């Protein structure tokens, strides 16, 4: 199973949608709170300058935000990444 990490904040609707999509897929993920400025900065560096949440990583590869992950799923590309 792939290692999934998602940077979130508590009130972000896109974060909730991303977590729901992953839950629907039946995969475990690690949620990282991006409220701490140091964590947010580390996320931004890791996400190639993107500061918005969620930022999603699968096996250390940057997938992007919720819209990116949902589009990847619609194209049939998400399940193969999750199954690694």
Automatic annotation (TrEMBL):
<dbReference type="GO" id="GO:0045454">
    <property type="term" value="P:cell redox homeostasis"/>
</dbReference>
<dbReference type="GO" id="GO:0015038">
    <property type="term" value="F:glutathione disulfide oxidoreductase activity"/>
</dbReference>
<dbReference type="GO" id="GO:0034599">
    <property type="term" value="P:cellular response to oxidative stress"/>
</dbReference>
<feature type="domain" description="Glutaredoxin">
    <location>
        <begin position="4"/>
        <end position="63"/>
    </location>
</feature>
<keyword id="KW-1015">Disulfide bond</keyword>
<keyword id="KW-0676">Redox-active center</keyword>
<keyword id="KW-0813">Transport</keyword>
<dbReference type="InterPro" id="IPR014025">
    <property type="entry name" value="Glutaredoxin_subgr"/>
</dbReference>
<keyword id="KW-0963">Cytoplasm</keyword>
<dbReference type="InterPro" id="IPR011767">
    <property type="entry name" value="GLR_AS"/>
</dbReference>
<comment type="similarity">
    <text>Belongs to the glutaredoxin family.</text>
</comment>
<keyword id="KW-0249">Electron transport</keyword>
<dbReference type="InterPro" id="IPR011900">
    <property type="entry name" value="GRX_bact"/>
</dbReference>
<protein>
    <recommendedName>
        <fullName>Glutaredoxin</fullName>
    </recommendedName>
</protein>
<comment type="function">
    <text>Has a glutathione-disulfide oxidoreductase activity in the presence of NADPH and glutathione reductase. Reduces low molecular weight disulfides and proteins.</text>
</comment>
<dbReference type="InterPro" id="IPR002109">
    <property type="entry name" value="Glutaredoxin"/>
</dbReference>
<dbReference type="Pfam" id="PF00462">
    <property type="entry name" value="Glutaredoxin"/>
</dbReference>
<dbReference type="InterPro" id="IPR036249">
    <property type="entry name" value="Thioredoxin-like_sf"/>
</dbReference>
<dbReference type="GO" id="GO:0005737">
    <property type="term" value="C:cytoplasm"/>
</dbReference>
């Amino acid at each position: 199973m792939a290692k999934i990490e998602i940077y979130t904040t508590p009130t972000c609707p896109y974060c909730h949608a991303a977590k729901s999509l992953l839950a629907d897929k039946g995969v475990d993920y690690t949620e990282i709170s991006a409220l701490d400025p140091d964590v947010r900065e580390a996320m931004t560096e890791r996400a190639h300058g993107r500061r918005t949440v969620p930022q999603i990583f699968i096996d250390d590869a940057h997938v992007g935000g919720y819209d990116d992950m949902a589009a990847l799923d619609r194209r049939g590309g998400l399940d193969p990444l999750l199954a690694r």
